[in-house]
């Protein structure tokens, strides 16, 4: 028999706990199958255009971005331009120093003598002129070559005759005498020039002629050369006393000429 000496329990009646309900059932929604993923699916990752798949393995290798390629090109171009500028500056300095050391000078031209024969003046002019021209190379380190030498004779800038001279060369500190000859037969002169020439001969028989010499020259100092340039020589007011026979010689001694490019 039981122990009736214990007092009866007072309070709320004891009921057994109900079985746990699923969360979906508790909220009034049907329970999803247990195989469903309880979280939303992650977004699909878009392929990166800067990655490519290597054929030999499954790894991805990053390709250089465009701005990095452009930056490398700009650096290369800057270095190339800087290198070219440095080369030009060095060459310029070398040429300048070479020019200072050599410092080529113009050759010197001087008419030592002149003569005319068979001079005749009417409505035109005829005669034969012969000039002896001394050419001096004042350079001690540079030789000079004269090519395509042309010359002409004039009075008061009016053309009378021309001639082609033989090419020649000069060594360092060299003096060469060349012969410059002209022949005219009925060379035309305008009325103003004819009157001026006739007046000069009538006064004292002294007529001033002009000789022009043009030549392509090459200055040579061994490994250093100046490109061919056109040399111009102007020998003005070469006075020749012409007698009644039509012959005469230069007066006043030797006369220098102007030389330039």
Automatic annotation (TrEMBL):
Major subcellular site: membrane
TM ranges: 80-102
Region spans: Disordered: 1-40
Keywords: Membrane, Transmembrane, Transmembrane helix
The keyword Cytoplasm is assigned to this record: no
Residue stretches of biased makeup (Low complexity): 23-38
Subcellular compartments: Membrane
InterPro entries, per database record: LEA_2, NDR1-like
GO terms of biological process kind: defense response to other organism
SUPFAM superfamilies: beta-sandwich domain of Sec23/24
GO cellular component: plasma membrane
Membrane topology, from the record: Single-pass membrane protein
Signal sequence bounds: none
Protein's UniProt keywords contain S-adenosyl-L-methionine: no
Domain Late embryogenesis abundant protein LEA-2 subgroup: 133-228
PANTHER family (UniProt xref): LATE EMBRYOGENESIS ABUNDANT (LEA) HYDROXYPROLINE-RICH GLYCOPROTEIN FAMILY (PTHR31234)
Name of the protein described by the UniProt record: Late embryogenesis abundant protein LEA-2 subgroup domain-containing protein
Source species of the chain: Kalanchoe fedtschenkoi (Lavender scallops)
């Amino acid at each position: 028999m039981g122990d009736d000496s214990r007092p009866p329990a007072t309070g709320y009646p004891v009921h057994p706990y109900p079985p746990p309900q699923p969360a979906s059932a508790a909220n009034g929604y049907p329970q999803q199958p247990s195989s469903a993923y309880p979280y939303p699916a992650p977004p699909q990752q878009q392929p990166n255009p800067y990655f490519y798949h290597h054929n030999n393995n499954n790894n991805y290798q990053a390709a250089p971005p465009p701005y990095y390629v452009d930056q490398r090109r700009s650096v290369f171009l800057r270095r190339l331009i800087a290198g070219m500028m440095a080369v030009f500056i060095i060459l310029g300095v070398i040429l300048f120093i070479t020019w200072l050391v050599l410092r080529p000078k113009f050759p010197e031209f001087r008419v030592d003598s002149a003569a005319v024969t068979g001079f005749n003046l009417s409505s035109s002019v005829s005669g034969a002129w012969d000039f002896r021209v001394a050419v001096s190379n004042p350079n001690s380190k540079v030789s000079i070559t004269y090519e395509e030498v042309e010359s002409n004779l004039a009075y008061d800038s009016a053309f009378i005759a021309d001639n082609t001279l033989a090419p020649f060369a000069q060594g360092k500190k060299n003096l060469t005498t060349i012969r410059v000859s002209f022949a005219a037969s009925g060379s035309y002169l305008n009325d103003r020039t004819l009157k001026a020439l006739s007046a000069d001969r009538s006064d004292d028989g002294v007529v001033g002629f002009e000789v022009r010499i043009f030549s392509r020259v090459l200055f040579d100092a061994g490994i250093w050369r100046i490109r061919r340039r056109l040399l111009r020589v102007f020998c003005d007011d070469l006075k020749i006393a012409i007698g009644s026979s039509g012959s005469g010689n230069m007066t006043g001694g030797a006369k220098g000429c102007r030389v330039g490019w």
